[in-house]
């Protein structure tokens, strides 16, 4: 027998899947704009939409808790969905930050893109894994995400060491540093989403 609350939980799941697709696209578009001068205008719209969807998730989670007073796995799912929604919202926010770097520094197509493109590929893989882990409730996949986080962190640190050791174009070096920092933060949130999926399935609280 379907409970009234199940309709709300299904709506919550649908909102998150919508956010997942939108946030993944926003990050990919921002990196495309950096590497090849693609259109970045849609990223701002996507980030704004993600913010609106996050508010909807927030309102719905509060409503479900107030109306049905869920416990056990239902409460765990609702709590984790709020955290995951925040992660997808932050993906969009950092994608917008990357676009704002491009607006600030101008055309960067002649810069060396290797470090950013390499880190972005890993970050996009982490986003894809976090989305799939949530959609399939796949704990094994969720637990593989942190290993990739270390690669993105190292890319950022390696780039900073290179900036300090070599004479590089300041505009290229500084813009790449900022974008790598945003990618590092995106990869952190992908890891948090994986931890939330783990929490939904196993009930194990994410480590501090």
Walk me through the structure.
By secondary structure, this protein is an all-alpha fold. The protein is built from seven helices and no strands.
**Tally of separate helices:** 7
Order of helices and strands, N to C?
Answer: HHHHHHH
Helix content: over 70%
Measured between the Cα atoms of the first and last residue, the distance is: 38 Å
Tertiary shape: elongated
The major beta sheet can be summarized as: none
Question: What would you call the structural class?
Answer: mainly alpha
Strand-helix topology:
Layout: H1 4-36, H2 41-68, H3 72-105, H4 114-136, H5 139-142, H6 145-165, H7 170-202
Helix pairs in contact: 1-2, 1-3, 1-4, 2-3, 3-7, 4-6, 4-7, 6-7
Quick recap of the structure?
With 208 residues, the protein is mostly helical. The chain has 7 helices and no strands. Helix 2 (41-68) packs antiparallel against helix 3 (72-105).
Task: Supply database-style keywords.
208 residues, mainly alpha
């Amino acid at each position: 027998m379907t409970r009234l609350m199940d309709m709300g939980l299904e709506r919550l799941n649908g909102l998150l899947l919508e956010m997942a697709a939108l946030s993944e696209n926003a990050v990919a578009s921002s990196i495309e704009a950096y590497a090849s001068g693609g259109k970045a205008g849609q990223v701002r719209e996507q980030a704004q939409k993600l913010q609106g969807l996050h508010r909807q998730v927030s309102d719905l989670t509060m409503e479900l808790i107030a109306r049905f007073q869920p416990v056990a796995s239902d409460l765990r799912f609702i709590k984790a969905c709020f955290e995951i929604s925040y992660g997808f919202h932050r993906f969009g926010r950092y994608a917008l930050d990357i676009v704002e770097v491009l607006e600030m520094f101008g055309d960067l197509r002649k810069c060396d893109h290797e470090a950013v493109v390499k880190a972005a590929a890993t970050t996009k893989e982490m986003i894809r894994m976090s989305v799939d882990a949530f959609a399939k409730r796949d704990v094994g996949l969720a637990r593989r995400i942190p290993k990739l986080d270390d690669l993105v962190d190292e890319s950022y640190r390696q780039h900073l060491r290179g900036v300090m050791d070599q004479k590089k174009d300041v505009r290229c070096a500084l813009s790449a540093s900022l974008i790598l920092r945003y990618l590092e933060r995106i990869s952190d949130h992908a890891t948090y989403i994986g931890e939330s999926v783990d929490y939904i399935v196993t009930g194990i609280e994410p480590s501090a």
